[in-house]
Amino acid sequence: MNEKRIGEIVRRVYKKAKEACASEAKNALTKHVEENVFEEYRINISYKTVERAFDKYIEGKKVGSPLAESVDLFCKYLGFKDYKDYILKRKRKWILIVMVIIAFGAILFVPSILKNEFSDGFNSQNPSVSSKECMTWADSLYVLVSCVTKPYSKYGTRVEPLDQMKLDNFKKIRVHAAYSFFADDGKPLVWYYKTKEDEIECFTAPGFHPTNGETLKKITPYIIDKYVPLYSN
Fold it and tell me: What span, in angstroms and rounded, lies between the C-alpha atoms of 204 and 215?
């Protein structure tokens, strides 16, 4: 595996974990990655492994490189099948960007486009791009906002880079016993978070709670029976 590419992957893992967690403490970030990988794939990756990777590629400490198996799990956390899939799709994205640039005759803009694409969003100071590509949580759904409002929006929630899939599909919902919680094949259509008041908040997609960063859980018949009201209010 290419050491430079592994560093790129770890930095993207670190960035995603920071966006998902309420705390930016390294221990919180590493535990989040460990729990998320297990929750999504039922595969264990020790938070110590994640911590060593952050030490090496984020903090510049002289520690050993992660094993190939760990790099594959980092790629899974980012939404890829494994390291090979990550490399393949990144190359395809690069080719597509170049083709679009050539098609529109925008050769003069290549340096800035490539910088934004491969910097993984770290230390970006380009207001013309950032001002158009952010969103924030507004009570029950994500809404578009200007990135210049960082770090927090008028709703009191963190301003995040635009994720079109999350913007379109992630919503907080009110449910009752007659709600369609499962698809025909049995897969869940609702994910939940249990509050300190022993109540549940329901959402239309998996991921993390938009205000506290906790991992959402798949709805189950037990949770429905115990927490969901029979009728809508």
Answer: 14
Q: How many helices (H) and strands (E) does the chain have?
A: 9, 7
Residues 18-41 have a mean pLDDT of 88
User: 45-55 burial, b for 16+ CB within 10 Å, e for fewer?
Assistant: bebebbbbbbb
Answer yes or no: are the C-beta atoms of 45 and 56 closer than 8 Å: no
**How buried is 164 (Cβ within 10 angstroms: 0-12 exposed, 13-18 middle, 19+ buried)?**
exposed
Element (H, E) at 89: helix 83-103
For the chain, the domains span 3-85, 91-123, 125-167, 170-233
State pLDDT tens for residues 104-149.
665 555 555 555 555 544 444 444 444 568 999 998 999 999 888 7
233 within 8 A of 199, measured Cβ to Cβ: no
pLDDT single digits (tens) 33-76: 999 889 888 899 999 999 999 999 999 988 899 999 999 999 99
Q: How far is residue 69 from each of residues 8, 57, 65, 94, 221, measured CA to CA in Å?
A: 16, 17, 12, 25, 35
Cα(146)–Cα(40) distance, integer angstroms: 32
Helix (H, G, I), strand (E, B) or coil at 163: coil
